[in-house]
Design a protein that fits this description.
Blueprint: H1 16-27, E1 30-35, E2 41-44, H2 46-51, H3 56-59, H4 64-68, H5 70-84, E3 89-96, E4 102-114, E5 117-127, H6 134-151, E6 155-160, E7 163-167, H7 169-175, H8 179-182, H9 196-205, E8 209-216, E9 222-232, E10 241-248, H10 250-264, H11 274-291, E11 295-302, H12 305-312, H13 314-331, E12 337-342, E13 345-350, H14 356-370, E14 374-376, E15 379-381, E16 385-392, H15 399-415, E17 421-423, H16 426-448, E18 451-460, E19 466-477, E20 481-483, H17 489-494, H18 498-518, E21 526-529, H19 540-551, E22 558-563, H20 564-568, H21 572-584, E23 587-593, H22 600-605, E24 610-613, H23 625-640, E25 644-647, H24 653-662, E26 666-667, E27 676-677, H25 681-694
Amino acid sequence: MPPSSSAPSLEDSSDSNAMLRLIIDAAAGMLAYFEADTLCCRFANQPYAAYYGFTPEQMLGMRPWEIMGQDNWQAIAEHVERCLRGEYVRYVRHALSPAGVPREIEVRITPHLEQGTLRGAVVQVLDLSQGRSVQQQLDESEERMRLFSAATHEAIVLHRDGVVLDANAALLRLVGYSLDEIRGKTVLQYLDKEFWPLALDAMQSGRNATYKASVRHKDGHSIPVEIDALVMPAGRGTQDYRMVVLRDITAHQQAQAQVRFLAEHDALTRLPNRWHLTDQLEQLILQAREQKRAVAVLSLDLRHFSAINDSLGHQAGDQVLCEVAQRLCSCVRPHDLVARAGSDEFIVVLGGGTTRAETELITRQMVALLEMPCQVAAQQLVVAPAIGIAIFPEDGENVEALLRNAGAARYLAKEHGHQPFQFYTPALESRASRMLNQEQLLRQSIAHGGFELHYQPQVRCDTGALSGFEALVRWRHPQRGLVSPEEFVALAEARGLITAIDRWVLRRACREACGWYAQGMPRVPVAVNMSAQEFRHSDLASDVAAVLAETGLPAQLLHIELTESTLMHSDAQVQRTLHALQQQGVEMAIDDFGTGYSSLAYLKRHPIHQLKIDRSFITDLTENDDDTAIVTAIVQMAKSLRLRTVAEGVESAAQLAALRALGCDMAQGYHIAPPMPADQVLQWQQDYCHKLQAQ
């Protein structure tokens, strides 16, 4: 911009173009401002201060002769006098820099006038020694400023006393207005009203300020922004200019909200997670304590959920969890809470002063809804919940106690399959603690091989010849010694531990049977028990095949025993597993037959080879006509279906004789031999053969 004796001072600028030219002039080269009456320096930019060997702060209050020395001051005194008379001064001179380097400089002194009174002067020094013209420097400086303003993605608005003077394209895009529409308007018009006090405080403070607010778009929607308001001094006695930079932080806030949501919610079900629930439950407890009202906490999980994951895959399990979440949400009221605590565990909080009777009613509705079949992976699945309930304040006065006691009640509800929910009572706590201790011991035993197998022989009723062995697992309890399966299988099933135990039993029984055969024992089958959960695993048949290949046991020498309930509640996966086992040559037997849902239909539909008559029908067989009739019916039904029969719990010669007379194929029980460790089987077999031959 060429110098002019009529160049406007800051306060004379009436539009944004003049203001921009003044900013560009000031940005070019070295710049300082001196007060008229004292000749003290009130401002110096970094290049000006550095040229004379000072910092901008050190320059403040210094007079020209203190800055440049007496000789240089005397050389320019006449130019200063002209400026003090109100003239615009421009001159070129040769001088030595403070470092002693000859320089050619151009000096411009612009008087600062207010209502005809000289207030000071702006001194601009341009170093011409670089071989570039003053006009070239100005043009490039102006072009850089314009390119920056146009290219930056940050919105910039220039205002004075809150009145808009200029704005760049990014600002206009942000608010949806044209420059003509906003120029001359107050900046407050474009801020949401709640942020007006913040903006006014920033303007009146006279300092740079940074704050967050929201601007109003032309179409009415709000845009969250971060604002940097930069003060641009205009001279003593006049209102400063402000360059305001606005950054749209919509995406940033959305990202923060998403991060916060993910931190507080379960990614699968979108329900609050345990951490978030704990925070909300604390607030509900505070309100309930003040209002003397009750809060019910329900701890819920799903029986045998691991079987769904194991048999149908985790994707199917995830579908079940999402369906459960939706059903739970449909059962509760707007002021209640539903959260996923982890795996298949959910927490429901019933607030609003829910009574015990209301809690029970809602819980029963939950159970009924959750037990309705759901379609997953082209199959109809039924999930059964186990729910524990604790009530504030009688069952606990803080979050930790309520969740712990609801969990203890749920633990016991899950132990008893016929009981879908359980209210907490103090007596339950010690019982639940014992159960938890048992579970921990059981897990340790699984990890460290804390089991062993005992074998009970099976013999033919007609000849007495050995026909097989049943493998019976025993738990080496650290305090109680050997424990029978009746005392831990239900716990193992409820806690999802039965698969590990069943797999261990299968592998050990096959390996030990092969050891007996290698030592000359007749190759009779060995039978192992499998939980109903196992038959819902898609990999059971392949696991059995792998164990047979690993141990070398022929498939026809392995019998697998299952309960009637396995068949009565079978699905497509159970049928596939049974048929896959049959194709391998493995035989299936129904254990405890007659105590469940005996049906010719499922016996015909599934590949079953033998029925094991429950001991409850054998105990009074020789004295009770009803038991005799039942055993007779079972034997005759089995024969009609070409199935073998095995009587369990035979404890006397009279019972064995009666079974022989009724046509039962085989028997096992203490009359023949009690279960024995593997290392005693060979000796027992040899002794039994000698005894049989001697008869």
